[in-house]
Amino acid sequence: MTIAGFIVRNALRNKRRFLLSVSSVAMSLFLLVTLQVALRELTNPINDEGSTLRIIVRNKVSLAQPLPARQLPTIERIPGVAAITPFSYYGGLYKGDEKFTSFAQFAVDPARALDLLSDARVPPEQMQAWIADRTSAIVGKMTADRYGLKVGDRMPFTGQIYPCDLEFKIAGIYQGTADDRNVMFHQKYLDEALGDPGTVGTWWVKASSVEEAPLVTERINKAFANTSAEVRAETERAFQLGFVSMWANIKILIGGISMVVVFALLLVTVSTMSMAIRERFRELAVLKALGFRRRELFAFILAESFGLATLGAFFGAGGAWLLYRTLDMPKLTGGMFVVFEVTPQMLALAFTIAAVLGLLSAVAPMIGVARTSVVQGLKTLD
Amino acid sequence: MALPLRYSFRNVLIRWRSTFATVLGIALVVFVFVLLQSLAAGIEKSSGNTGDSRNIMIVRKGSTAESASLISRENLREIQYFEEIARNERNEPLISADVLVLVSLPRIDGSGEANVLLRGISARGVELRPQVQLVAGRWFTPGKREIVVSSRMAKRFANFSLGQSFKAGTASLTVVGWLDGGGSAFDSECWMDADECRSLFERDLYSSFLARPVDEAAGAKLLARIEADRRFKLKAEKEVAYYQKQTMTAAPIKWLGGFLAIMMSVGAVFAAMNTMYASIGARTREIGTLRVLGFRRRSVVAALLIEGALLALIGGVAGCAIAYLWNGYTTATMGFETFSEIVFEFTVTPRLMGEGLIFAVIVGLMGSFLPSVRASRLPVINALKSV
């Protein structure tokens, strides 16, 4: 029998215990990975090429405060601005949704939005149809699939933020952006319904290059300083990170719970390992008597606990990876999470924790073995 | 014949070293469960605690949140003279036309900005909300750019101390007082004069009206009258009923709490099974002896199940105790209805602790069921022979 074979046999001698230990480690690591994914979704917004170029201009007071439509020509003239469109969050409740609609609807200027939506793929004839008809809208593929919508269908909404109900005709379906859920429609249509108040929600600006982007934001902020509607211009990424700050203590809470899970995991593995070693003190004493040296015994113990923990990580973290790849998470969570992705970093974290776990849980039994003399060990009853 | 309870109980105590990890594991599961549910309970308590049962709130038809509602001044002019609305000793109608504005303000710890709900109230606004008390400074002077902030928000946002001022819109507001909402949703608000607020943020319209009817019957009449009048596109409901519905933020937290508890408890069941198998394995001879003495199989199973349940119960009590340390601790997150920071307390209720304990016992029973069945099935002779 080889040494490796000896270790494997030893680990598997109580199959039930081995299975239970591996499962509980796997379960905990699965949970840990799930929490990490959720935390990342909440705190680390989607980052794509366009989001470093896109700048969002909102009222300095807050996002809920509108901006005057007259700002458009001023921003357009600012050097480094490649494109601009109004971008107003309509916040309607889609027909049939009780209290909460999981996708957003934005009022834009379609002709101008083309440049800003460069990563959205829409058939050109659909794009033309959208621009031509001011009651029409384009819909993200995820939303279209979820509600079984196709070109030509109508989408009625009840206004929750604006005091007007709108109905759009679907002119096209887009895909390829970081979040293919939104509905985009004509700002003019919204203005008409509201009696032309001369305001927009925010401006969406595209900088001519990544290097220009910070300069452009600064210029926009300056252009409206000391006016009746001061603005806050920031890159889309910074804007999204602003939302993260609003989650406040919830972030810390999820982080804390992850720690608790890891700790619980440690307890389980440590206790199992010491259980496994305690019941074979006599054997280890025999091995010692046969001439195996202490560090060889340590290696046996270490290999076993290490193997157990890594196997748990393999099933737990690997299982999470596989599960979230196969499951349709946006659908399952009602659109709360768009991308539920297990990153390589998370897998690495899970395996690192498993490795540390394996080491730590071998320590206590090793001390026990080191302290026990051969005679004492041979005398031990279970 | 059943084994005495004492057998199970003493077993738990004697083998405490080997069962310690299991107990702690279960304690952590219960802790996470109770803690998360206490957050949701805190949000629900704060919204359930808000409002005066006599008051009626009027918002735009179709708006789900007060902050998204718009009502004109013309509506105010008409409604305030309704005979259903009570008057104070100076014969002024008890109605407040409020305007709600979200203002993005920096946090005190410099970790970014968050939306704060600013409420502009009319002269009767304070009188209509007796649960809101001034705890420091004074109320704002109508017509001045002064603001009274919630004392709990003052700990979270920069420049909220008395005498300090912060910029909002085109002007700056001076903090003249601190209010305390008595654990209600008003603890997440800042109050100022409604008309100053409207001019500062260029609002032609009010957000909501809050009115006090003469009596219960007049209240019902007022609700019906506003609903029936076609000129107003308004919705009237009891103030308490409106706030009671503001618990959308609690739903995902509850869901998360349940999800985590179930997932973690699966792990805990595995661990408990491990411990019980080992503990039973170590006393095979003892169990054999019990059988020889005439104890039935089901008595042995029952005793071991009780042992597992007791073990889990100890864990559950410990978990509840750790979670209880957080009780009353103030925390905050973004409210889904208002889109602003809401402040609330961890609220560990007896009901939650009860649920946590039941949860623990179920984990214990599930963890010890298979091991105890196995123990009872051991052939007596073999059991006695084992070392």
Give the SSE layout.
The complex is a heterodimer of chains A (382) and B (387).
Chain A: H1 3-11, H2 15-43, H3 49-53, E1 54-59, E2 67-68, H4 71-76, E3 81-89, E4 92-94, E5 105-108, H5 110-116, H6 124-132, E6 136-140, H7 141-147, E7 154-159, E8 166-174, E9 183-186, H8 187-194, E10 199-200, E11 202-207, H9 212-223, E12 231-235, H10 236-246, H11 249-278, H12 281-290, H13 294-326, H14 329-332, H15 344-371, H16 374-379
Parallel strand pairs in A: 5-9, 6-8
Antiparallel strand pairs in A: 1-11, 1-12, 2-10, 3-5, 3-11, 4-7, 6-9, 7-8
Helix pairs in contact in A: 1-13, 2-11, 2-13, 2-15, 11-15, 13-15
Chain B: H1 5-14, H2 16-48, E1 56-60, H3 73-79, E2 95-106, E3 113-121, E4 133-137, E5 146-150, H4 151-154, E6 165-168, E7 171-180, E8 189-193, H5 194-200, E9 208-211, H6 216-228, E10 234-238, H7 239-244, H8 250-282, H9 284-292, H10 297-324, E11 330-334, E12 341-345, H11 350-377, H12 380-385
Parallel strand pairs in B: 3-8, 5-7
Antiparallel strand pairs in B: 1-9, 1-10, 2-3, 2-9, 4-7, 5-8, 6-7, 11-12
Structure commentary:
The complex is a heterodimer of chains A (382) and B (387). Chain A is of the alpha+beta class. The relative contact order of chain A is 0.18. Chain A contains 16 helices and twelve strands. Chain A has helices at 3-11, 15-43, 49-53, 71-76, 110-116, 124-132, 141-147, 187-194, 212-223, 236-246, 249-278, 281-290, 294-326, 329-332, 344-371, 374-379; strands spanning 54-59, 67-68, 81-89, 92-94, 105-108, 136-140, 154-159, 166-174, 183-186, 199-200, 202-207, 231-235. Helices cover 56% and strands 16% of the residues of chain A. Chain B is of the alpha+beta class and 387 residues long. In chain B, 48% of the residues lie in helices and 19% in strands. The radius of gyration of chain B is 30 Å and the shape is elongated. Chains A and B meet through helix 2, helix 10 and helix 11 of A and helix 2, strand 2, strand 3, helix 8 and strand 11 of B.
